[in-house]
Prior knowledge:
It is a single chain. This protein is an alpha/beta fold and 233 residues long. 20% of the residues lie in helices and 27% in strands. Strands 1, 2, 3, 4, 8, 9, 10 and 11 form an 8-stranded mixed beta sheet that branches. The chain has a 3-stranded antiparallel beta sheet with strand order 5-7-6. Strand 2, helix 3 (74-78) and strand 3 (82-87) form a beta-alpha-beta unit. The two termini are 23 Å apart.
Amino acid sequence: MPLNKVVSSFAEAVADVPDGAVIMMDGFGGPGGMPQQLILALRTQGAKNLTIISNTAGLPGFGATGKEPAINHGILVESGQVRKVIASFPVSPSPSRPTAFELAYREGRAELELVPQGTLAERIRAGGAGIPAFYTPTGVGTSVARGKETRVFDGRGYVLEHALKADYAFLRALKADRLGNLVYRGTSRNFNAVMATAARITIAEVDEIVEPGELDPEAIVTPGIYVKRIVKR
């Protein structure tokens, strides 16, 4: 495994993403957790028929700051690069402001797999831990369980959910060292940490890169063994 995982540009970081790739992206807490520059680079790179696994499908204005416009994975839907989304909150909170994904879904240009948020996190964690499937009571008796195996344990119904794995995970972290150890800030910790373990190639977009030994070991959440590439904003 290389001792220096830093790549020189976002374009280089995503250059090998093929058509049909499955990509995990955090997308939970605005710009803190959104790999904005990796998303922009992928739009330019042009890979199509992508499956995006994320908490949302890209919400209007989500990811905006006072200095930066909203950049989220919704722009990949707008550019026609997304075939399917696996998400918990794929629609806008405002009916008058539908997301690009909502419009694509209504027109039959994109598919949706709706997953309860806790189940989504656990399916990703299971994928990283090598657990192929698990039973959960969430969704029993609803459309979420349609077509899935169900069983009763101790008098309570459970539905079988399968692990999620990806070809790539696009992460957003605060700091990294050149070995790929990652430190997060605030909401960026939520899905990023489990997604890092569940992808074949994990790419981290970070604000700062330091030398090995400069990070507080107690602050490292994602060990470098899970990270293949690092690129600085």
